[in-house]
Amino acid sequence: MGKTGAMSEVVFTRGSGWIPSVVREDGVLKLRLGAGADANHEPRTFTVPVGEQHLAVIREDLGRHLLLWSALLPLCDAAGTRGRLDEEAAVALLDPVLLAAPADVDAYFRGIPWDRGPLIAHGAGIAPLERGEVCAAMRTATEASDAERAQEYSARRRRAERGTVLGPLDAAVLRYTGQYAHGATIPKRLPDAVDAALRPEVLRVVATAEHACAGLRIGRDPRRGRRGTDKRDWERMATTVESAVRRAHPGLADEAVRSVGFLMCSEAADRARSTSLEAYEEAADGRTVLSFADDKGAEQKWHPGSARTAAVAFWEFVEDRVGADNEVFQIEDEERGEAIQLYFYADSAARITAVREGRGGSEPEYRVEYGLVDGMSGYRSLVSAFVRGGCAALDGLGPWMPDHAEFERARRRRAAGGAR
User: Fold this and answer.
1) Which residues are paired to 366 by β-bridges?
2) How far apart are CA 199 and CA 112, in angstroms?
3) How far apart are CA 232 and CA 217, in angstroms?
4) How many CA atoms lie within 13 A of 94 on its CB side?
5) Mean pLDDT (the chain, rounded)
6) Beta strand segments in 288-416, E
7) Measured between alpha carbons, how far is 216 from 42 in angstroms, rounded to an integer?
8) What is the DSSP letter of 352?
9) How high is the pLDDT of residue 403?
10) What's this model's pTM, rounded to 2 decimal places?
11) Distance of alpha carbon 165 from alpha carbon 255, whole angstroms
């Protein structure tokens, strides 16, 4: 018998998974099971005193062993991250689950909470389980666990609760994209997960999606950090793909349609992340020294003839430093006495022009004009124009409003869905 501690020894165990074991601690038989996690996200371990009769059934009857585990898990969940297991309630489960006649066990399970997941994972028959015939369901139980079977069962139950009914093609599309069990999982192409008879039809759906987004791409978005991609591009591609798939395959369920759109967008975003920033910027470059700055006091100079163009160097500066508390960036051309400030949190910018230099201790005078910016493409155009020709090159990218109150009204109208 393997040792688990100075005063504990394993008396009986099944396999190497999570099925509870029986141990002897200080001479007392206990069922030991891991369930949930503590406040530090470490697995919690619970023990329940058992008798020799209980141990004998656990040894001989895999089905009863698994049913006991299923009945104990809700008590472990109730203990939370640091509470104590309700040992009295746990002990009260032992005789009715392990020692009662099958009909009585079935009746008992109709009156207590229990966790279907482990039973499904270990091969329990789904049809008898849903009829409440838990003992009959355990005739097909195995020591080996199939987590995917339990996940798919849970997904079917959640869909049934929402009133969602999937046809064979819907399910096949979701299996192809890896979204059948977990809709939030990053999608992928899994042709082998699809029944061979349905695979050609699934591939026709995917081909429709590919054709729909052939001319679209998702760009990088430095405002969202080094791996950031343009949310607006994503939404545009998703809408285009989903509309095309619905037209070509009108019988397909919304969930299956969305999963194909998710696949196309996810693949396009991956391509964007591996694309250099140079691919998004115009070849034209600035001819004067520029200074980049953020809202935290970081600064960086760019000089003509540098390995990176000014626009690329600026966006690299942004993606390295941007954050929820750092969303204002500036480019300054000291030679021209001009600058632009970009307010990512408000989809807006200001262009700043020196009107009069400071003399005799007086402060210099600047003209500040505000403008709304239309997404990442708008910011790219703004930065490229400024590094080429300063504030004068921004005239066509307005309107520019010298009155801050007027600008705020325009910003509020846009936020409310009005004029942009």
Assistant:
1) 354
2) 43
3) 11
4) 19
5) 92
6) 290-294, 299-302, 328-333, 338-343, 348-356, 365-372
7) 45
8) E
9) 93
10) 0.76
11) 10
